[in-house]
Design brief:
alpha+beta, Alpha-Beta Plaits, eight-stranded mixed sheet, 9 helices
């Protein structure tokens, strides 16, 4: 097993103490915000270092007792038994620390833009897209995140041809990024009167939400048009020109927001545009990631799937890690989705840890 980088651990401890000292002395708002974020980022690592060192110190004391020829026999027996329980704990704490030291995606702590679109399957695909989006809303609620719809296109049955939302909170992208891809559903559609099971699909794309400082959008690079909003069945339709369409001229990216307030639409549309441009820049830097994302989402065909939701059998299968759970209601309500995402995170950590061990 690869040894921990003790020199790096010392530097992290020193940096943590230095930040704490700076915060106690007072700093400008901008510096204070930057320091508190860094402090929060490295505090879990510092806590793990301290726990490991305390356990190691306890083990060293017990080993010293066992080496002492004058030690009482009963005390030596107790020390040996205690040492046997500490050794696996040390191994667990070392593993925990290695995981905390793994390189992280720079966007992991960000909020996210979630885009759900109906794939193959007509109206049933749109209904499934709506079910997926509600699943993400519930999962967001469980995590204390805020979900705000930016735009949506409904069909006559209440399904979504497309829905785009902003999910705001710390670490949203680190979890939801695993949802990008094609989701396949097998069930008897509400539109089916003969009880036949259909297979449909929806695509999900999750983009890290960009900050103002990430992407500079020049006024001359965008065209803003206003138009009337429209909705299924004439419901919630604005009679004024409140919908906003923003076109980014250099890239051709078009974003539409059609809520009730024109001011809010402009803000939300710029938010999505900024995030899409930010993701484009990330893709330029990391071509491999870009290709993986495109291959995952594909064209929305049923055969290109990352996960299958089989309602008649009550199971959900994530094909990337060959994980099947048999409580589809729990998944659709949010808690079960969290368990699947946690399994995906664990698998990714194991892959990174293997690379760490091999390249150390």
């Amino acid at each position: 097993m690869t040894a921990l980088p003790e020199e790096k651990l010392e530097k992290l401890l020193e940096r943590w103490e230095s930040i704490q000292s700076e915060l106690n002395q007072g700093a400008s708002p901008a510096v204070y915000a930057k320091l508190t974020k860094e402090f929060a980022d490295i505090s879990p690592v510092v806590g793990a270092i301290r726990r490991l060192r305390a356990t190691r110190e306890e083990a060293a004391d017990l080993e010293a007792m066992l080496r002492d020829p004058s030690a009482d026999t009963d005390m030596a027996t107790l020390a040996r038994e205690e040492l046997e329980t500490l050794q696996p704990r040390i191994a667990e704490q070392e593993q925990e620390l290695k995981i905390l030291l793994l390189p992280k995606d720079a966007a992991d702590e960000r909020s996210a833009i979630v885009e759900v679109r109906a794939g193959t399957g007509g109206d049933e695909a749109a209904l499934f897209a709506a079910d997926l989006f509600r699943m993400y809303q519930r999962y967001a609620d469980l995590n204390g995140w805020t979900c705000e719809i930016i735009s949506m296109s409904e069909n006559d049955l209440g399904g979504y041809r497309e829905i785009i939302a902003s999910i705001t909170g710390r670490g949203v992208f680190s979890k939801l990024k695993y949802e990008s891809g094609v989701h396949r559903v097998q069930r008897v559609p509400a539109t089916e009167n003969q009880g036949r099971i259909h297979t449909s699909a929806a695509t999900v794309a999750v983009l890290p939400e960009a900050e103002d400082v990430d992407i500079e959008i020049r006024p001359e690079d965008i065209r803003i048009d206003t138009m009337r909003a429209s909705g299924a069945g004439g419901q919630h339709v604005n009679k004024t020109d409140s919908a906003v369409r923003i076109t980014h001229l250099p890239t051709g990216i078009i974003v539409v927001s059609a809520e009730k307030s024109q001011h809010q639409n402009r803000k939300l549309a710029m938010q999505v545009l900024r995030s899409r441009l930010y993701e484009t820049e990330r893709d330029k830097v990391d071509t491999a990631r870009s290709e993986a994302r495109k291959s995952q989402v594909g064209s929305g065909d049923r055969s290109q799937r990352i996960r299958t939701y089989n309602f008649p059998q009550g199971r959900v299968t994530d094909h990337r890690i060959n994980l099947t759970v048999h409580n589809i209601e729990r998944v659709m309500e949010g808690p079960g989705l969290g368990e699947i995402i946690d399994a995906l995170v664990t698998q990714r950590q194991a892959e990174l840890l293997a690379d760490f061990e091999n390249n150390a």
